[in-house]
Amino acid sequence: MQCDLNVPFPQDVTDESIKQLKLTLSTLIELNYTHVAINKNLTPEMYHQPSKKQKQQMTQQQQQKNEQYNLKNDLDAFFKYFEQLENKFSSKNLKLFSRVTVEIDDPNQLGSIFINLNAPSNPNRFDLVAILPLSEKGLSFLTNNNGASSNSASIDILTFDYANYFNGFHLKHKTMNGITRRGIKVEILYSGIFNMSNQSNLKFVNNAKQVVRCCRKGIKTCIISSGAKKNTNVRGKIAVESILSFLGLKADIYSRMLKENPLSCLLNGRLRVRSYQQTIVSGIDVMQKNDFIDEESLETVNGFVVAKREIDDNNDDEHVSKKQKV
Amino acid sequence: MVRLKNRYILFEILYPPSAESTSENIVLQHRQQRKNERLNITSKMIVYELKKMIKLYLGDQGLAKANIMLQMKYFNSSTSMGILKCSFEFYKIVVLGLSMIQQLSSGGENGNTLKSIFINVLKLSGTIKKLEEFGIERNKQLIKRINFDQRKNNNLNHQSTPFSSSSKVDFLKHTNELNDVKDDDEFDMM
């Protein structure tokens, strides 16, 4: 069981970009990955409507783009493609999950984006919700009172832009511990190490070391995923482990970062969508999709509706026949 | 008297498919070279690229450490599987170098032709025998997967994948070749 919780969905949707995404997924299957999340990035221009003053400062092209863009249609288009991919790869032992990353520059611009994304009435809810702070203000959104009280339950992952130096902000133990104590995982994207141009491989090592330093060495807090836009930037388990040991981590820590931490993160996200207040769920496997339940098997016990299931008889028969053969 | 310990690395070269590739089968997609980029890969090319990558990421000191007992024990270009021998202490450096390789270049007379590939490290072990067993078992499973997909496609009346029975026999022959790899040098006594 291997997880990769960040495969970026292309910003400009064309036939070629979707084909590239499919190729990346097929390479992940070849490398024995089983749980993969497809990531939709939301930049501040997508969810924030500019004021009159800001509109006056914009060029004509930017204004036209802003008027044409509709967030709801964009998300609907994403889920349409996501369903297609799910149908295609469901027969190949690959479980796909949807994920949204909200880039935060100024928390005042956010408005009601998180409330809309997590509304129970919304038919298309994302399995995972992540945050990418572009400035120190954006990071402080997670620690200040408003952000912490209203949104901490609905956010699973905190990521950074590893291809560039953090924009003039320095990560502190106090802020990061406060964030991770609430169960939010911090993500490291390894695909930056393969990119030679613009010194992004140096920046990746610098940034990743900074993150690991202030997250208690990443034992229970960090997860690692690819973030690969091309299928050449994906690697198997042993290769990712060697990259992490190159960063100076020990074997017991990086084995957790690869398997247990992402799985717990995924479970948390799926429970938010599937369960009633993370306690009562229908079905056996939370990760499974389209879990079918017979209405005849539903019973009321102490005021709750419970689905009862029988164990498959076929499996028992196989056991018996094997024993008889022996 | 202590035996000098080695580590053996089993790896395979995968060819990442491009948008032009036609076959639907995932196993075949990653094992067929593109027509215009076909390159006869040799073990020399891989070792050259490996050393280049180690020098890029870990410098002269890293390269000097990795060079201890570095030797390509076996490489087959048709199955694109190989076994690399390296020192017990510094095997992590070699694995890092292998996983960083993104392309291979043929430094021939006709000029450099670059080919984008990546290397998937399959298993690390202290003896060649265990790697051989693992490699043979894995190749058998791959053939099973190809056959299964072919049968499924035939049932659904799709076009069959271009993997003829003769090439399957070749694949099996090369798989059995893995059995013959032996460690030539006897145990070094120190």
Q: Overview of this structure, please?
A:
The complex is a heterodimer of chains A (326) and B (190). Chain A is α/β, with parallel strands linked by helices. Chain A folds into two domains: 3-274, TIM Barrel, CATH 3.20.20.140; 295-325, no CATH class. Chain A has 14 helices and nine strands. Chain A has helices spanning 15-30, 44-47, 52-57, 60-68, 71-89, 113-117, 136-143, 145-151, 173-180, 200-214, 237-246, 251-258, 260-274, 313-325, and strands spanning 3-8, 35-42, 95-104, 128-133, 157-158, 185-189, 222-225, 298-301, 304-307. In chain A, helix 7 crosses helix 8. The longest helix of chain A has 19 residues, at 71-89. Chain A is globular and about 60 Å long. The two termini of chain A are 32 Å apart. Chain B is an alpha+beta fold. Chain B has a single domain, classed as Alpha-Beta Plaits (2-Layer Sandwich), CATH 3.30.70.3250. Chain B is built from five helices and six strands, in the order E-H-H-E-E-H-E-E-E-H-H. In chain B, strands 2-3-1-6 form a four-stranded antiparallel β-sheet, sandwiched between helices. A two-stranded antiparallel sheet of chain B has the order 4-5. In chain B, strand 4 (103-106) and strand 5 form a beta hairpin. Chain B starts with 5 loop residues before the first strand and ends in a 13-residue tail after the last helix. Classes of the chains: A alpha/beta (326), B alpha+beta (190). Chains A and B meet through helix 1 and helix 11 of A and helix 1, helix 3 and strand 6 of B.
Any chance you could write out the topology, listing elements then pairs?
The complex is a heterodimer of chains A (326) and B (190).
Chain A: E1 3-8, H1 15-30, E2 35-42, H2 44-47, H3 52-57, H4 60-68, H5 71-89, E3 95-104, H6 113-117, E4 128-133, H7 136-143, H8 145-151, E5 157-158, H9 173-180, E6 185-189, H10 200-214, E7 222-225, H11 237-246, H12 251-258, H13 260-274, E8 298-301, E9 304-307, H14 313-325
Helix pairs in contact in A: 7-8, 11-12
Chain B: E1 6-14, H1 26-29, H2 43-66, E2 71-76, E3 81-87, H3 91-100, E4 103-106, E5 113-116, E6 118-125, H4 128-155, H5 165-177
Antiparallel strand pairs in B: 1-3, 1-6, 2-3, 4-5
Helix pairs in contact in B: 2-3, 4-5
